[in-house]
C-alpha cells in the first residue's frame, strides 16, 4: 500500500469531524484540530459514535472501525496538527477573519508544498488566498454533510489558484472516492447559491402559510425526487449556517438572497436545527417530527 501523507482538519465541528472520518476511512493519517482539547475530543467522540452505528448496521467490520480510529489524532496543538501534513482543510465557522487567522497561523508550520483548502460554502477563495499570502496553493474543497456518504465534492478555484494545485485537489478528491466538480470563485459557488435560494423560498412559504413544513418538504421529495426536502435539509445544515450564507449572498448578489424574517427569528431563539434538537423539525430518538404552528 502506498504511504499517504497526513491530512490536517482545522475545526472539529459538524463538517470538520465528518471530513476527518472520511479521510481516516480512506487510509489517511488524520489530525483533527480544534482550539480546545475538549472540542477536539468531542469531535473524535462523534466519529466513534458514527463508526459504531456503521458497525451495528453491518456496514463496517470491527477491524476497519479500529483502524479508522487509530488513524485519527485529536489535538489542540496547531503546530502538531499541520507539521508534515500533505493537505490542510480548514473547517472553521463561516467568518472570513476567523478563517484567515486560522490558516495564517497554520501556514507558519505547514510544509511549503502542502495543499491548502477551505471547506467554506460561500466565502471568497480568492480573498482567502490573497490575505494568507499563498494564493497559488489555496482553493476550496466544499464537502457535503455527511462527508462520508455524500458523493459530490465542489472544488473551487480562486483567481490565482495554480493549475498544479487544482490537479492535486482533483486527484485527492478522487482518492476520497468523491465525484468532483470545478467551479469559479463566485459568491455562493454553484451548490450553495442554488441550495439556499430553494431553502429560503421554502421558509417564506412557511411564513405565508402556503403549506405545512411536512408538505412543503414532501412536495420536493416526491414531485422533484429530492432525497430530502429543503426545510429538513436546512435543519441538517444548521439554520445559523444558512442565515450566514444568505446574509453574505444578500450583500454580494442582491435582494434574491434576503434572509426570511422567520429564519432570523428561529436563529435568535436558538432553534438551529438538528444540532440543537429543534428547528423546522423536532429531532427525537424516533426521528424528526415537523414543528407546525
Write a concise synopsis of the structure shown.
With 293 residues, the protein is of the alpha/beta class. 47% of the residues lie in helices and 15% in strands. The chain has helices at residues 14-25, 37-56, 62-70, 78-82, 96-107, 125-132, 163-175, 191-207, 213-223, 230-237, 239-253, 261-268, and strands at residues 7-10, 30-33, 72-75, 87-90, 115-118, 138-142, 152-157, 179-184, 281-284, 287-290.
How would you describe what is shown here?
By secondary structure, the chain is of the alpha/beta class. It has 2 domains: 7-184, 3-Layer(aba) Sandwich (Rossmann fold), CATH 3.40.50.720; 192-279, N-(1-d-carboxylethyl)-l-norvaline Dehydrogenase, domain 2 (Orthogonal Bundle), CATH 1.10.1040.10. It has 12 helices and 10 strands. The chain has helices spanning 14-25, 37-56, 62-70, 78-82, 96-107, 125-132, 163-175, 191-207, 213-223, 230-237, 239-253, 261-268; strands at residues 7-10, 30-33, 72-75, 87-90, 115-118, 138-142, 152-157, 179-184, 281-284, 287-290. The chain has an 8-stranded mixed beta sheet, sandwiched between helices. A two-stranded antiparallel sheet has the order 9-10. Helix 6 (125-132) links the parallel strand 5 (115-118) and strand 6 (138-142). The protein is globular and about 55 Å long. 44% of the residues are buried.
Give the low-confidence spans.
none
> Helix segment count?
12
Strand order of the largest sheet: 3-2-1-4-5-6-7-8
> SSE string, helix = H, strand = E?
EHEHHEHEHEHEEHEHHHHHEE
Classified in CATH, the superfamily of the largest domain is NAD(P)-binding Rossmann-like Domain
Tell me the β content: 15-25%
**What is the share of helical residues?**
40-55%
In the CATH scheme, the class of the largest domain would be Alpha Beta
Based on secondary structure, the structural category is: alpha/beta
Terminal CA distance reads: 56 Å
Number of strands: 10
CATH T-level fold name of the largest domain = Rossmann fold
Looking at the overall shape, the CATH architecture of the largest domain is 3-Layer(aba) Sandwich
Approximate shape = globular
For the biggest sheet, the summary is: 8 strands, mixed
Radius of gyration: 19 Å
Mean of residue pLDDT?
Answer: 95
Number of spatially distinct domains: 2
